[in-house]
Structure prediction request, 553 residues.
Amino acid sequence: MRISSLLARVVPVWVPLLVCGVAPASAAEPTFSADRVRAHVAFLADDLLEGRDTGSRGHEIAARYVANQFAGFGLKPGGENGSWYQRITFQQTNRGGDPGAITIGGDGAEQRYPHGGDVLIGLNGREPKQDVAAALVFVGYGIENARFKLDDYRGLDVKGKIVVVLRGFPKGLPSEEGAHLGAVKAEVAEKHGAIGMLAIGTLLSEKTRPWKMTLQYAGDPDFSWVGTDGVVFSEAPGIRAAGLLHGPAAEAVFAGSGHTLAEVRKEADKHLGVPRGFALKTRARIQIESTSERVTSPNVVAILPGSDPKLAAQYVVLSAHLDHLGIKHVANDDKADDDHIYNGALDNAAGVATLLEVARAAAAAPDKPRRSIVFLASTGEEKGLLGADYYARHPTVPIGQIAGNVDLDMPLLLYPFSDVIAFGANHSTFGKLVADAVAPMKLTLSPDPMPEQGVFTRSDHYMFVKQGVPAVFFVTGYANGGEKAWNEFFSKAYHSPKDDMSQKIDWDAGARFVEANYRVTRAMADSDSPPEWIEGDFFGDTFAPKAARAPRQ
Ligand SMILES: [Zn+2]
Prediction:
């Protein structure tokens, strides 16, 4: 089940870059056009495409547009059965008429908490009538990791039981590693034999994600991809039910245990505080009903074959998500003439435009790239990175031959950027590769300005990381007006109908962003050795334990 949709809402990503044209180093080098970037964005963000929702006609039209551009550049189809597409089946699981409830209690006394009050229940696309009841065991943060000496299940028997976990990860853990460990709790619980998971907030998470905000998602459906066997994909199918507890519901699970929620939260609030787990005296019954429907939607994939006979069997992937949020549900207080279309001009028509123009330049370059390049316009990103996840698990080229991935998401083309950020750069040789590649443009690579956000684990490229592939996700930096532009975009236009062509988009910045990405893509395709994980890096060691390593600088 997709506990993540409730426990840790995936925040999609972005990237910006800009500047005016630098004279090409030689007459043979490609040029980058602001007009062409604008033309792609104008088409993809047009109202006629109705927000390019996954599974919608608007997204299908966008996919056809991208495939036809690829064809025009002379690329090869890289999808399934010789086509440009990798068509994916998705299941949307909707809440039924009865919202469901979690009943918590011990000897004699029990209390029923309906969904949307002090509890939220996740949907399980595999079980339309969920009814899971079992004894509860508190397991602290529910994390297991030898490197950080975390062993929250030590001495606890959770077989056939429902675990109660704290949200997040211990204070003081590095944010990206912590975000990863926080995201795999259901898998850890499943491994120990648990059948359900209930999460409670820490003092920190209650502050950063107030319950009121979390409740906004109470009516959301679940969206998951369906495997070729027809079964809805789940990372932890053994965890049959999951939910979030708040206030009195969170306190209730500790009744009779000799411990209290306040005591556990206080311990968790300390630096590297790790509350120990213990068996609880209470039980929970999680009940919810759902209906479901299935749609299909394609990833669009093209390949530019490499020119070097020794390296052509290796692939580098440039990706950007083509889907967006569709049409806004009309609310009572909306005026009839309100804009309801999520055009997604910057999120992520601009990223796809960049991908297309990099593809054009790479295909036309007189000196052909040495490694093969996969251009991937993914679907389902806004639903939880689903198209990229599907591609990384069902790649149309062998996963062992994918050498690296650069993802483009939401380039903020609103200011003349003078620095770039590559989330994840410090985990692999991508850091140096990117810095060297953009240096001729007088761009610098800045460190992650928002490490607390754990952005590295929050966009499409992370799905490649999970399959062992070094990857980065680019954004324009905070310098030269960037910080203000980012803050304004997030507060006013991000994931709203305002992210459309009426914004003051700096198309010269768009052309410059294309050039930067072209340079990075070429560096990735042409360097003698492919990107490598840094020796001792957590993500490399976790996902690619046998891959070659580069020494830490
Ligand atoms: Zn988005």
About this structure: The pocket of zinc ion is lined by residues 12, 347, 382, 495 (CB under 6 Å).
